[in-house]
From TrEMBL:
InterPro entries: Ala_racemase/Decarboxylase_C (IPR009006), De-COase2_N (IPR022644), De-COase2_pyr-phos_BS (IPR022653), Orn/DAP/Arg_de-COase (IPR000183), PLP-binding_barrel (IPR029066). The active site is at 410 (proton donor). Signal peptide: none annotated. Residues 55-266 form the Orn/DAP/Arg decarboxylase 2 N-terminal domain. GO terms for molecular function: diaminopimelate decarboxylase activity. GO terms for biological process: lysine biosynthetic process via diaminopimelate. Keywords: Pyridoxal phosphate. Coiled coil: none annotated. It holds the Pfam family Orn_Arg_deC_N. The keyword RNA-binding does not apply. Its cofactor is pyridoxal 5'-phosphate. The modification N6-(pyridoxal phosphate)lysine is found at residue 74. This is Putative diaminopimelate decarboxylase.
């Protein structure tokens, strides 16, 4: 890789969908939208959402597999996306009482919904039973609660069992969710099979991380359990392999590699910092040596979305000697997935207004935005995409400057991005900063109203650039 000048800014150019490019070209519309909706505002579109559903369906159809896509609603609270998934003939994965209730009130039938909530209290289970929603059972306490409800009401409930404890290369894949495979078999054959009101419909798992071999091993071991259940006279209608499908956010591999290289050099003191106060983004420096890797999402990757799914399905499991798609098709099982982030790829941007410029005690330019860091936050140590600076200043005055974006919370740590970014020119009050591709987890998952700040408004953009309010959180 060609050496980079020690003081040079490290770009991370995002992929931008055509609908976003068209919107960004209309500066007046952006400014009017922020003025009407206040800052920040989340502007979203269902067009990429529909395109992403279609990508997944093409893979399933390529292998002639029965399938169902359940949009993981927790990734974005806007009901518009849940309704779009249902309108496309797919389903919605709900993770709370409010998520489930809103979907039902929106007219989405119970058989297009599943309940995967990590905590399922009695009211939530009762609602799911009443509306004939498939319930994903994770532990015996959930099972006992459901058992008491259906017995008391003499009501039938359809359930799927969450399983875990898969092994790979002799090691167990760690998880806090699900029943071990042997316990699942025992529960299904000894209790659920004989239950007067519970109807077993399938198996479910969700793996953390993005390892293809782990997914393949988990599916193969699930199929072994399905075969064992079939031998006991119990049919499995579906296998749900969860979510966690990669998204590629960045346009250039070399930029991604350069960032990692330069970050490590900066933390080691071999070049100027590229993060605020030389934040190592999860790495640890001990006795002059770096340990670990940045705890960030793989923002550049070459197996995104449907390509990731196709790689799983085409992989061969050593215990069967067949590709995964053949194992599933031979058993006539409906394969289910629960994508969230990947269905929302390119479906939204967050726009915020510049309210101040200043320098900190070390001379760093700080640009204050009318938002807070929870409105641009996920589990990744930083959001590693270049934001876009929209200014009405004359192009003659424009000369790029580097600095940091800060938000409204009264904390030293209130940085919207830890990475130093480059502005089109010295920012002016009222300029706009656009964070691209934020619909999946970034805009809603951790948002907070501390300081009594209002939550961001959510609007949708039509193909002809009409801005409309969404229809409920």
């Amino acid at each position: 890789m060609k050496p980079i000048a020690k003081d040079k800014y490290i770009p991370l150019k995002p992929i931008i969908h055509p609908w976003i490019e068209k919107l960004l070209a209309d500066k007046d519309l952006l400014a009017d939208t922020v003025k009407q909706q206040c800052s920040p505002v989340n502007i979203q579109s269902v067009t990429p959402f529909a395109e992403n559903i279609a990508e997944y369906k093409r893979v399933f159809e390529q292998y002639e597999l029965k399938h169902k896509i359940f949009f993981a609603r927790k990734a974005n609270k806007c009901l518009t996306f849940a309704k779009a998934a249902a309108a496309a003939g797919e389903g919605v994965d709900t993770a709370s009482h409010k998520e489930l209730q809103q979907c039902l009130e929106a007219g989405i039938p119970g058989d297009q919904l599943i309940l995967t909530a990590a905590i399922k209290n009695i009211p939530l289970i009762e609602l799911a039973v009443e509306e004939h929603v498939t319930i994903i059972i994770d532990n015996m306490d959930e099972y006992d609660s459901l058992d008491s409800i259906v017995l008391a009401n003499e009501t039938t409930a359809k359930i799927s069992l969450r399983i875990g404890g898969f092994t790979l290369d002799g090691k167990t894949l760690p998880t806090r969710f699900g029943f071990p495979l042997d316990e699942a078999y025992k529960l299904i054959t000894e209790q659920i099979k004989k239950h007067p009101f519970l109807r077993f419909s399938g198996l479910h798992f969700h793996l953390n991380g993005y390892a293809i071999d782990q997914r393949v091993a988990a599916i193969a071991q699930s199929i072994k359990l399905i075969d064992d259940l079939a031998a006991a006279g119990i049919s499995c209608e579906h296998l749900d392999i969860g979510g966690g499908y990669l998204v590629n956010y960045l346009a250039h591999k070399k930029e991604w590699e350069a960032f990692h290289q330069e970050l490590k050099q900066a933390v080691l003191g071999q070049r100027p910092a590229i993060t605020y106060q030389n934040d190592p983004l999860g790495m640890v420096l001990i006795d002059g040596k770096l340990h670990g890797e940045p705890t960030v999402y793989p923002y550049y990757n070459e197996l995104p979305k449907a390509v990731f799914l196709e790689k799983i399905l085409s992989s061969e499991d050593v215990s069967y000697g067949q590709p995964i798609h053949e194992l599933i098709k031979a058993r006539n099982i409906e394969l289910r997935i629960e994508p969230g982030r990947s269905l929302l790829d390119q479906a939204g941007i967050t726009v915020a207004r510049v309210v101040f410029r200043k320098n900190d005690t070390e001379g760093n330019l700080l640009v204050g935005l009318e938002m807070n860091r929870t409105q641009m936050k996920s589990s990744s140590a930083d959001f590693l995409l270049d934001p876009i600076h929209i200014t009405h200043q004359s192009t003659e005055l424009q000369e790029p400057v580097d600095g940091y974006l800060v938000g409204g919370y009264c904390l030293e740590q209130e940085f919207l991005l830890k990475r130093k970014i480059q502005f089109a020119t010295y920012p002016k009050i009222g300029d706009l900063i656009i964070f691209p591709n934020t619909a999946g987890y970034m805009m809603h998952f951790f948002e907070s109203q501390a300081h009594q700040f209002a939550l961001a408004n959510n609007v949708f953009c039509t193909a002809d650039l009409q801005i409309t309010k969404h229809d409920g959180d």
